[in-house]
Amino acid sequence: MNTEITPKVWDQLLSMRRGTLAKTLNGFSPSEAAAWDLYSPLARRDTGPMTVAQIGQSLDGRIATTTGDAQDVSGPDGLAHLHRMRALVDGVIIGVRTAIHDSPQLTVRLCEGDNPARIVIDPTGRLPDDARLLQDDGTRRFVVQAVDRARADGVEVIKLPLRDDMIDPRDIVAALRERGLKNLLVEGGGITIAKFLEAGLLDRIQIAIAPLLIGDGPQSLTMPNASDLLCNAIRPKMRAFALGSDVVFDCSLGALVEARA
Questions:
Q1: pLDDT tens-place string over residues 12-25
Q2: Distance CA 28, CA 144 (A)
């Protein structure tokens, strides 16, 4: 469905994100109503905590070239979509490999809205203190680690144990929610998203596909314990939204979360 994010729609979504539910959808065009359907599950604060993931990829399922160039995988509308998702959640989670390789800011720049808390999973303390996402701009910053390593003033350290050489995503989500971060976005990379997916923690996953054929390079999502049989594969309920340069597949994983609980 064609999706139009007008100022009227976005203002109501931000109002919902701040705790004031929109009273009516009267006057929305079909494309505005589609935008509401896409973003309102992230904006709501009256239905309990939510964890979502987003990944941008090419038509052939790649997230970068063989040299690691990933800057332009998503088109301009796909990038704007990601920034809207950031604006509607309480915190954004990435793994340390993504933090080091891509040096993301994890800020809201392509739409109106507040920056979410920035969270990096760094079990062994590899992330340098001058990383862009740790810079003090008034936004809460977290490092989730398993080692004793001091961080710069203002960076909140969450120390959690290793389980099978990794920090359990369940422990991460529980610790963040204890600190007031209820709606979470797992933004990358693909390995981190797969771990949260396999742990049954994702309520939704959004896959933004750009009209691009890369030919080779890292795949968008590879699960460590994938099913050998299609009959056992995850088959989420799915809706597709046309966002100009990209198409977003919004997949509901609520049943999987309940099964893994």
A1: 999 999 988 655 56
A2: 42
